[in-house]
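User: Structure with fe (ii) ion, tokens only please.
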Amino acid sequence: MAEDQFADFDIRKSLSMVFATPLVVHDWPDSEPLNNELRGLILGKESEDVKNGIKRSNSGGWQSAGNFLTWKEACVNIFRQRIESVVSKLLQELIRDLGTDRSFKLLIDSWANVNRNGDYNIVHTHPNCMYSGVYYVAPGQPDPTVPHGGLLELLDPREAANFIQVPNTVLDARNFYDNTPGRMLLWPSWVKHMVHPFVGEGERISIAFNVNVVEDSR
Ligand SMILES: [Fe+2]
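Assistant:
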């Protein structure tokens, strides 16, 4: 048996990463004017909301109704286009090898979130849709001494992945995402996630969304 069977063995030729989970993290440029408009609009709606918002995954905090995209302000229309752009580009990437003459209709629900000191969102998924995401409008002034304060964490969908105890590998990852204003994330709706308690001054403002995708019939 050839001795070089070991030396020549390249594991990369035999390895594929199965069950991959697509995640988009896109930082929209020049977002400050848009975010200022969205911030004023959302805080204004919150102050008018006599029913004190909706309870979904939030513990404390305020969530608008899921009709954010029907609000008539121009900044909302730009925001809608940002969602449509990111989702469409992801879909085109996912079908890259399956033909380029396919088109999709997007059905989108969206709602605004305002978290203040102590508010958080429990671990949850977004049922009855395909892709979900969030856009960061304002980070507030989080206490820098509090670890993970106000951060989104996506949980590993491989329930027992951490049974393999090899530190600092793809098998023990925890994934946190900064509330950078202008940042948009998109993931499959079945991915469990949570928002750690915001500790600090001001308002952590985000806009969440759910997308259902319907392929246009040809
Ligand atoms: Fe969520």
